Amino acid sequence: MRKGILTIAAVGLLTTGGLTACGDDSGDKAASAKTPKIGVILPDSKSSARWETADRRFLEEAFKAAGVQYDIQNAQNDKTAFQTIADQMITGGVTALMIVNLDSGTGKAVLDKAKSQGVATIDYDRLTLGGSAQYYVSFDNETVGKLQGEGLAKCLTEKGAKNPVVAYLNGSPTDNNATLFKAGYDSVLKPKFDAKEYVKGPEDAVPAWDNTQAATIFEQQLTKANGKIDGVLAANDGLGNAAISILKKNKLNGKVPVTGQDASTEGLQNILAGDQCMTVYKAVREEAKAASDLAIALAKGEKKDTGQTVKDGDRDVPSVLLTPKAIYKESVKDVIADGYVTKEEVCTAAYTKFCAEAGIS
Ligand code: BGC
Question: Which of 85, 119, 276, 324 could crosslink 270 through cysteines, CB 3.0-4.6 Å?
Fold first, then answer.
């Protein structure tokens, strides 16, 4: 079965390659003849270190291994730049466009335009609501949130907290993932609020996941709560670090558990130092590889069955959803062993002692 598909694809490639050489470039068959060239638009480099340190690296790794041409650019949180980059990529002849949208509106405009020009499209990491991407590749984001909620509960228990006040620092209101993360942590924490086991403290969404704004927002939350916040559900490591910076100013770091996500170097260091309760590790290498495989298949005119779909309104979007993993002090070493960050990056001078304690050798 598999062999059959491969053979047909190879024949298709040869035939259409011939057609293109003759200058006949019209019709569906010609579309499937294209040599893969993949365009990727990353969202920014500040809301999380992952985009530049992990996604760019692992996407390059996957494209190079497959021997395809690629162009990876970063919109630096600028929606106009996002659209300009997309236009340039389409004009530049990409066969597939992979986007991490800044919001569903601009994401949709870009996807629709690409589609109208015969360019294959993939929503990478963030689903574009009402969009038209042919595939969605991400992690199970509700599970990400669930792991955060469970992690916070575990750390609060370990601290012996009684009726703890829990503050929320949610992700960007324009990021569908932030909605899914919150659904996940609410599924764990809301029953505890309802049972009066925990007390719901201040809750804010952080625009564009802006880490600097997050610190200001958390400082206001702490003031509003008269300094009584016992746990912080921060939706990623950047927001967690913002909260930790304010807790440090108030000599509360290490006493108040804070969650995170992305297993960033900074997040892992905060965990080792005891200032952060946990993070969620998402193996971006696998995400990049899955997206790259799909983009290449689409460029060859092949349709892959991902065996899974996600609902976007009435639309069933074929999806690949990978499994996230909770990381605590004792499992920081697993992230290093997986090649996501290096021991040298994490165990800098100030952290060598903590690294030794956590069994990182
Ligand atoms: C991603 C997270 C990231 C956040 C901020 C989300 O869509 O899934 O990994 O931390 O955006 O960039």
Answer: 276
